[in-house]
Amino acid sequence: MPFSKELLKGSTDTLLLSLIKRKPVYGYELIKEIERRSQGYFRFREGTLYPALHRLEREGLVEGKWEQLPNGQERRYYYITPKGESVLASRLAEWQGFSSAVDMVMGLGNL
Questions:
Q1: What is the pLDDT of residue 27?
Q2: Domain contains 111
Q3: Residue ranges of the chain with pLDDT lower than 50?
Q4: Residue 9 in contact with residue 31, Cβ under 8 Å?
Q5: Is the dihedral of CA 46, 52, 53, 55 positive or negative?
Q6: Is 95 inside any structural domain?
Q7: 3-class secondary structure per residue, 49-82
Q8: Which long-range contacts (CB under 8 A, 24 or more apart) does 81-90 make?
Q9: Domain tally for the chain?
Q10: Residue 57 is assigned to a structural domain of this protein
Q11: CATH number, residue 43
């Protein structure tokens, strides 16, 4: 079922932070992991992902580090910062409250 891009726009940073918190990851890996975890519902493109990662980096929520692979190739891995962990915790709490309230209004929650 297709979704409004506006819905994703407000959640992109939180989705990225939650995956980066699990382990340091590189861009293409993030694209594939989001697609896998959402069972194909979310399909990020590089044009969406990299501007978001750069914004998170500018805001001090993630840190990108170039790392050399055994084959000599370099890859940029993203790590969550303490500030990023704090922001993520706040956003997750906000999301839980919001989604619970929406569920109650729509009759999906426990009343």
A1: 94
A2: no
A3: none
A4: no
A5: positive
A6: yes
A7: HHHHHHHHHHCCCEEEEEEECCCCCEEEEEEECH
A8: 83/59, 84/17, 84/20, 84/21, 84/56, 84/60, 85/21, 87/17, 87/61, 88/14, 88/17, 88/18, 88/21, 88/61
A9: 1
A10: yes
A11: 1.10.10.10
Domain carrying residue 52: 5-105
Q: Which two tokens stand for residue 53?
A: 């990662």
DSSP code of 2? Answer: -
Pick left, alpha or beta for residue 45 (phi over 0 → left; psi -120 to 50 → alpha; otherwise beta): beta
- Can you give the C-alpha Rg of the chain in angstroms? 16
Q: Is residue 77 part of a domain?
A: yes
Q: Which amino acid is at 111?
A: L
Tokens matching residue 47? 């044009």
Is 78:53 a contact under the CB 8 Å cutoff?
A: yes
State the pLDDT at residue 110: 61
Chain position carrying tokens 């790392």: 67
